Write the structure tokens for this entry.
Amino acid sequence: MVKEEQEESSNRPDNTAFTQQRLPAWQPILSASIVIPMFLLIGAAFIGVGVALFITSRDIQLQELDYTGDDSEHPCFKCRTNTEKCTCSMTFSIPTLFKGPVFFYYGLTNYFQNQRKYGASKDDNQLYGDLDYFTNPSTDCDPYTRDSKNMPIVPCGALANSMFNDSFSLSHTVNGVQKIVPLDGKGIAWWTDYNIKYRNPTLNSVFFSGTKKPTNWPKPIYELDTTDVYNNGFINQDFLVWMRRAALPDFRKLYRRITHDDYADGLPAGNYTLTIAYNYPVHSFNGKKKVVLSNVSWMGGKNDFLGIAYIVVGSMCVVMSVVMLIVYARFKFAEDV
Amino acid sequence: MARDGEDTGMAKASKAKRQRKKKPKENKTRTVHANIHYDNAKGEENPNRHYASNKIKTTKYTVLSFLPKNLFEQFHRFANVYFVFIALLNFVPVVNAFQPELALAPVVFILSVTAIKDLWEDYRRHRSDKEINHMDCLVYSREAKRYVEKYWKELRVGDFIRLRCNEILPADILLLTSSDPDHLCHIETATLDGETNLKQRQIVRSFFDLDCDFDPLKFSSIIECEKPNNDLNRFRGYIIHRNGRRDALHKENLLLRGCTVRNTEEAVGIVIYAGHETKAMLNNNGPRYKRSKLERQMNVDVFWCAFILLVLCLFVAVGHGLWMFQYGDKRPVFDVLSPEGTDLSLVMSVIYLFLTMIIVFQVLIPISLFVSIEIVKICQVYFIHQDMDLYDEETDSQLQCRALNITEDLGQMQYIFSDKTGTLTENKMVFRRCTVAGVEYSHDANARRIAMYQEIDSEEEEFMSHGGTLPRRDSVTSHQSGRVVLRSHSTKSHRRTGSRAEAKRASILSKHTAFSSPMEKDVTPDPQLLDRVNECSSQLDFMRFHHQSMSHLPSGLSDIIDFFIALTICNTVVVTSPNQPRHKVRTRFELKSPVKTFEDFIKRFTPSRLTSGSNSSSSSSLNRSSNRGCSSLLSSPSTESTLTKLNEEHLSGTLEQAFSAFSPQYDEKPPDHPEEGELRYEAESPDEAALVYAARAYKCSLVGRLPDQVTVELPHLGKLTFELLHTLGFDSTRKRMSVVVRHPLTDQITVYTKGADSVIMNLIKPPDTGNTKGKRQKKIFCRTQNYLNLYAADGLRTLCIAKKTLSKEEYARWLQRHLEAETTIQGREELLFESALRLETNLHLLGATGVEDRLQDGVPETIATLRKAGLQIWVLTGDKQETAVNIAYACKLLDPDEEIITLNADSQEDCGVLLEESLRYIQSKFLCNSRDPSTKTFLSNIAHFEIYPQSSLSSSQTAHFMVHRLGLVIDGRTLAYALDKSLEDKFLAIARSCRSVLCCRSTPLQKSMVVKLVRNKLKVMTLAIGDGANDVSMIQVADVGVGISGQEGMQAVMASDFALPRFRYLQKLLLVHGHWCYSRLANMILYYFYKNAMLVTIVFWYQFYCGFSGSAMIDQWYLIFFNLMFSAFPQLITGTLDKDVSQETLQQLPQLYMSGQNSEEYKPYMFWMNMVDAFYQSLVCFFIPYFAYADSDVDLFTWGTPITTIALFTILMHLGIETKTWTWMNWLSIAFSVALFFTAALFYNASCPTCYSPSNSYWTIQRLLQDPLFYLLCAITPMLALLPRYFYRACQGTLFPSVAQAGRQLDKLPSDTRRNVLGLSRFKMRSLLGAGPNFLSLSKPKVSQTTTPGSSQDKQSPMKQTRKEKGQKIQLVLPHSHAPSHATHSPRLSGKPKPHSTKHSDETLPPPGPSSPSQTASPPLVKQMVSIHLNLPPDGASQCVTYTQSSEGGLRCGRVAEPAHRTVPAAERAPHTSL
């Protein structure tokens, strides 16, 4: 009979769980009995992870050398205002074995690579090796598109123009003799940058003819590394590293890795000399330059923060659950009685 | 048709406007010529060429105009303009932040979603238009010289159309001929007004005489009529024939588009209005658009968002200025010059940056919120629509949401204004009792029978629930209609078939027959009256046999027979027979038309004609049906039993004879084919049908009605045919209707009038007290008045029946003027009205009837539940005060335990004084009560039983006033005074403190004024519910208008936002759907604000680390699509499906509704709390990655992408905390969101190494997914970000759960446990609800201090005498005597009422403080104690009245028959003051 009626009545709504809003549902209720154990459990897990992270981070060795030369005592002080080529060197000692592979970074502070207009000031197509953009770079690069003679600049834009151009060499003093520590400049940039994003036109100098080097650069792009074809032009590793903009105003960028010869297992204890070809001006923005030697763990460089954060959050969960237990006991049980 | 009706809306309006512009010079009338004489091809000569064709086009757009028009419409929305502005800003190189094309994406997306929606709707309209335009109809073609098939759209004004049975009318057509011998055409107007009964339409009078077939070629008349308008019930015009004769045209001549031709084989008409100018199309209003309260609140917060946006942008811009300033002249290498190579000035770069920041932070103003809200609302409407519980099987109708965007308002209602008739009651009229010639016939058996139906209803439900449908089914299948069983079987079967389920079934079987439930049809006659009817008719028969004049009949007896004749013929009931429901019973004896011309009158009223009695001509064709009708009546078992009883008890000899005379009659006619003989009455209003059925019970049955004659079957006399001279239809101003007939027995011209007692009693001819007859008349008059009062007190609808005989001269005089009135065009209504007034005077009172309007199912329960939900219910009715009060008691609107303040005033001043007094009374009574500490403590215990008063306190909007257990009854006249500017504040002050308000005798305008007053002054959300045309204004004024799609037409439904089949569905609509819609939407909006603010502030924090340069570490694509795609779906699902409390609990615990009333889900502070939470969460989401990556070689997007991911997780988990019910759809949507983000990111990061400047995050996510740090961040950040909120929610859920949370906990219990818990006393419930009430009661002591000492002085002098001196009509009705100190103030004060402003009235009733459960809970206290002594200890500050009360149980038990007179005598009050 019900069926018959349904046929007769055309307006009858469908009687399904969905239309009647009776879908089976899980209704979590935030009550103490669920919340307290859950918080305890989460807290314990977080503390565990936090401890592990903290220990990992503590094992990482780090050597930082500021070579800005603000201090008149500093060996690089003379280079601060010098516009000519200037070299200075710093010595430092490593007390224990610096476990390898050691990463050699240069660091800048107060440098806003993340500035919006600065970051936008490049031409991806040009860097991709597209010759159309050699003669006619994108307006994104303005005003670093053409030089005063209206010649197109390659690579254009402020980002490339301001490329970091200090260079470093590291030597180990072994028995009073300076032994150059070989620095490995391969593979410091992203694989995708090196292989996909940036490309050189096949024949370097020919295609770069009719273009100008960026105004701040001492040499054109195709002479960045004349020794290695695969490290020259747009795919120069240092160039790639620089072009990958840092997220924060205090940053470091990978310069080299120490992976060769005697130093593959790390830097042995001893005295080292860092020689710096000091070119890059930072005093205009009160920046600092530094060199950082560090080894890395599975979670990256030295950073205690995450471990501490995990421990703190875990502890907070535990504390909260205890607080809730107390409050719950005071109110709820009293009421039940 | 119906569908296109909904959609027409604006298109039509604009079209009409255009039309008006085109022809400004056209005069007020429309002239229609027949197209026949103008070849259709030559349009220029056709005088009808200007009129709209019948092609309808309800679409808004064409293919070409869609884009510009739609965009133009969309840009009316401010938000859209804003977003387009932002997108365009991106094209300005100096300020752009994103790839310009990309910035267009959100706007284009939003616009296109809306455009697609519009396009789809328009396409649907187009399809339905096309379908309608291509329907066929028969149009006369000149070439073919016959009717040819044409499409509707080809129809033009002036065409002749042939209509066939069951055809839908294509246009508004003037009826010219009909195959019906009575020159009638029956139409069904259900699509227009929802009335299912047949309407008769007449052909134009001048074509009556046309005996041969109508030939369109010969038609040469010109029709002049009014311009197209939307009044369905009006059509005026005249037809001018070639000979210059003019004939008036009425609405009876017009067939309206959309109606269906029934019972008429063929009709021909000429098109008068076509297409968009038809009345049906002009009546179509599109769906209504209202702003809901929630949306208004939201808009405020959107402006706050805009404000925050500006502040943030300004902050960043200034920061950038400072950042640049610090470098001075030394330009750092990373500071880029302007594109021109020049150095930007500081100010300029600040301004540019400000604009850039607006682009970056644009998401703070939730672009997708508006679209999301629309989507969610559509889903909500769909769900409400689909609810089985809101589907009424009986009428096969479901709830209709006509307004699509105010669903959430349903959850915030505070006041309900309800109509009574048809809304609270069924509008199914059941004849209960009557008075004839001053003698009351109580119809006890009838009352018992009606009572039985009610019992059976409940029985039946149980019966059905046990699944035992077999026997009933059997009884149904063996007979075609339930009535048959009723006739031939025992009482048992009578009961069974008479049950409602059967009625339901029957009504489904014959859907288009209204008013046919057995309860209405079977009237058990009162034995005494039956005797008298028999006696009188046998006498009449005798007299006729002996050719005596009828006037010799004793007046008592003649009154009886006249009474029944009046009941039978003074109506517009159409007779049909049931097995062919739409076939009129042929009862024609001779072709005669009503008197239409004066000559006709003279001709017809010549003596020769007068002698021929029409009754003698009963034909055999009629015989059968009439006998059946009679026999079916008499075989009713209840009748039988009554008769037997009667025989035993008191039967005089003559009566016995009378009985024996006709009892064989029904013995010899066994109901062999009873269903054939059953006549069915179709009436325009149900009480008409009720009266006809009642008369039939006395064997005065209506057997046929034609426009010019009515046939009545009377006992002994057989069929009498009354020549129907005029019908003066019912209208609400006259409140009566009359028929003018020629009485076949006396040959007198008789006027039968039926109408509201208040009107008729004034029109009764003042009895000549000189003679005995006059005295008797006076006595009858007084008695009838008494009985009328009694009926009203019983909640019956009363109607008076009166008659008047006219001499031929009088009639002739009247007729002449009446005919004049009929033929005028201008002001015809007024003239006809006056004409009716002239006729309906000096009436002779016959009697009165009491018809019961039964309450709808579940009305008392619904009202009780709604009230528990904190809704104030006002009933505004046009009924008499007594009737209204009684219905109010019956539906538990008024409680016998309540005190009732009745306000009846005769003048403005009286009203003012009355209001003042009532105010003081309330003030003194309730404030004093609360000051008694002992009472307070006692009451505070009791208060826990009553959740209602407590929670109503928390409704802080109306916190000044508390709702007492008081009822207010006010009549229409007093209401008119009270609504005056000077008094309205006082009136409101009283009304708002009463629990229920009943306004009687209120006009539609007053209804809307009351609603408007409450809405505007109290700033509350109002809902008006009604079913009739008189409720339309009120429905339109209220925030939410609800129409009952009942039997009284569709006007209310057309005006409403929601249309319900039954009043009781209001409960679920409000408590469940309203609550859900509100809480879902409120939560969704808040969540939206949070979500956008959270994302934006993450970017904001970054500005501190990028030199305030407007750089974003979140890739532009993520930033733009985050809201649109990645986080959009879960919130839509939650916004659509989330249920904070299950529907069972919501209905069982109506208190939960109050969260919506108090806007608890979305209070202004909550917006700010969410903002603060968003700030906090964004801080966490920003700084954890910041510190985790500090001093590393991380690049911008390798660092920014984890932040985006973290933000997404946080936002989704935040939603998870706020989601109360998790269905698989919630899980799916969240999973989908996450999957979508990662898929999109993977694809995006792999797609193009050189595109997407300036961000270009090629291969970032791929590398990140290999980085453990990424996962570590994703684990800890959302955890820390959500910890506070989660902790807060957990504490709240555990320690001080809100009522909603308690309800949710209830949901978790197994269903039987829950039922137990809910079934337990409220006390238990309270403990379950947690400590909430305890907190509330903290502020209680404040209450006592609010009473001003000054005012208490006044209260001491009793008021009683003052009132009497002034001679006002004051009733302060007190059900118990426990309120002695009422309305006591000094005469001095009442003598010169102060001017009252709102402020003042607020002062006169000092706010009792936000919480004092003790006050409101005082009646339960009284209820439980027989006698209470409230003695206030004389402490210095309190000068309050204390008094001794005694409440006697007897006063309360049951509702007494005359509650209106329960004024407590002054003696019973024993006030004594103690100082």
Chain A has two domains: 32-60+298-336, 64-296. Confidence is low (pLDDT under 50) at residues 1-8 of chain A.
